[in-house]
Amino acid sequence: ETSSPSLKNGAYVLIGVGALTMLMGFLGCLGAVNEIRCLLALYFTCLMVILITQVAAGLVIYFQKEVLRDELSKIVGNLIVDYDPENGDANLQDAWDYVQKQISCCGWNGAKDWEDNKIIKNESMLLYPCSCSVDVKPETGFCKLDGPQNSTASSDVWPVHQQGCMDGVQKWLKDNLGIILGVCTGVAVIELLGMILSISLCKNIHSEDYTKVPKS
Q: How far is CA 141 from the centre of its chain?
């Protein structure tokens, strides 16, 4: 209910790549130990497919980032509106609370997003999300605003971070861009080394088989 076609397709791709990686590793080890050329060739092919898939996924994310951001905005917006610690999807809500707590943000665009929450509306804005709090509070659920019980409030007086999580995530990505690129480059290099090694083993096995053929 809270997902989108793009995110679902991305998840399916990651699951498929993970399963292919496990199978590929098994076939590569089996081919290297038993010197089976066809398995090593299959290992090389799988590595090449995975590398191409990773590059294609990166290009799709780069060129479709606006679409993905809009879909994420809708998903998070619906999650905030329906957020209910007692009856909602606990895993999804805990994940969003974790994001807000770790990035020190509140809502997708800002703390005002939480004013649309059904429970907070019924309490005249006297409740606010604990995971947004600037003070040490429980990491999930709602906290009560200090003040007269018969008054009303707004997100402007909540003791919460005013920065939206969209800006917080973008800032985190910019701050850690070097690490992310380094990890991606390291994975690509390892895959290329695996491809080179598998080809070398195939050539060695072919050479050994050729020398074992009796000459007439």
A: 24
